[in-house]
# Entry
Amino acid sequence: MSEIEIKALSASPQISTVLSEILLEVVANGGSVSFMHPLEPATARAFWDDALAAAARDERIILGAWDGEILAGTVTLLLNCPPNQPHRAEIAKLMTRPSHRRRGVGAALMRTAEDLAVKWQRTLLVLDTAADGGASGLYEGLGFTLAGTIPDYALKPHGGLTATMIYWKRIGSEDKGQGPNAC
# Structure
């Protein structure tokens, strides 16, 4: 594997296509990222077209991890927070192609997302992951704290219920508790 390059993604037909491909592959391989298998390509494309439109409105940042010409992974930093939560952001849709797992792609995406959250003056990150086959070990290794587990939270892509684990992490500011009042 060559060196991974992390870049913010913006709307284009090519980007929508490669994001849809990774989503289809991850769901087919059991990744619990809100979709059921078999996932229709048009559904995957519509999801990413909507997500990229939200990124164009600065409501989120979609990052891609590139291994040469291959999109090896992606993560989304959700910035569109309610008025009483301008200090936080949420991590969503961390996905790594099965061919690139256990090579540091997810960790690199998460570190970049955290750095961007700090630049957007966020002081708290939150995320959730499936208890069955999720990335809890990765998140804990990156300093996230488990807030709790909710049983029977979602269906796994191939059926059956799974719990979800909710995580949080303070970031950015020296006092780790004060943030600006603007999203």
Summary: The helical segments are 13-28, 41-56, 105-119, 136-141. Residues 13-28 form the longest helix (16 residues). The chain has one domain: 5-170.
